[in-house]
Amino acid sequence: MNPITMTLQADPLLLSALREDLSSEDVTTNAVLPEAVPGAVDLLAKEDGVLAGLDVFLRVFQLLDPATTGHFSCRDGETVSAGQVLGTVRGDLRVLLSGERVALNYLQRMSGIATYTRSVVSLLAGTGIRLLDTRKTTPNMRIFEKYAVRVGGGANHRYNLSDGILLKDNHIAAAGSVREAVRRARAYAPFVHKIEVEAETLEMVDEAVAAGADIIMLDNMAPDTMREAVRRIAGRAETECSGNVTRERIAELASVGVDYISCGALTHSAPILDLSLKHLRPEAAEG
To answer: Per-residue pLDDT tens for 73-105?
Structure first.
């Protein structure tokens, strides 16, 4: 992850997670180790998958003690195998013990998303369709989860509500019609923003095209209806399909001819990748 992004955006979230787990002290570790002891612990994969979040993982320990170091045999985006030793973290054993769970929680969650995303992306190989995530992310985890999607080969939809215009059903209801919603968005928004319209029917598709929408999201439509929608749009707007998109439906959805497929399951339903810290051991201090 970019160092500037880490410092400005990730660090406060990581510190909040550490405060949640260490409200006053790690009473177990402090009882066992009353004083600093230099040592190391190994990071192991317990199942096959795609790794994502190593910088975040190490940063958790370094926020507790900047002297903590990590040496890894793989990088984000690489496939790892069950039983593989992925690297070693060195530092004060008290820091390694106290930061273990928070560090692993981030790494397991991010790696799980990258693994699931990679599996879906592989099903779209050769189609030219780009896989997008959504804003269906865990609160205060969006920066990590969207990064993991990119590591897995997916692309990010808008990051937040300030990032782009997406006129959904309730926005359209508030404006009174698709045409009026697009008109108001075009008048209000800076020219750099594209306008995307969520369409649930072919009539809404026609209206969105006539209104000059840049992107039309075909939401919860049957595959045959989406094919007809793509035919009607005829390249006058980019097309995206969404709604209950899962790995099992990708092949069917890829056949309708859209430019993008957005999949909330990438971030709200991906299982974690099982990883572990093992073989904690004291080591002689350097020098």
So the answer is: 999 999 999 999 999 999 999 999 999 999 999
Alpha carbon distance 77, 277 (integer Å): 20
Region 23-40: mean pLDDT is 96
Tokens coding 122: 């592989």
How many C-beta neighbours within 10 Å does residue 176 have? Answer: 10
Considering only CA atoms, which of 164, 197, 192 is closest in space to residue 180? 197
pLDDT digit string, tens, across residues 143-154: 999 999 999 999
Q: Is the pTM of this model over 0.90?
A: yes
Cα distance between residue 52 and residue 85, in whole Å: 15
Catalytic residues: 101, 136, 168, 198, 219
Tokens of 53: 């979040």
Q: Where are the alpha helices (DSSP H) in the chain?
A: 3-5, 11-21, 27-32, 54-64, 93-123, 142-151, 169-175, 178-188, 202-211, 223-233, 250-254, 265-268
Cα separation, 3 vs 109, whole angstroms? 20
**165-167 and 130-132 as β-strands: parallel, antiparallel, unpaired?**
unpaired
**CB-CB contact of 160 with 190 (8 Å):** no
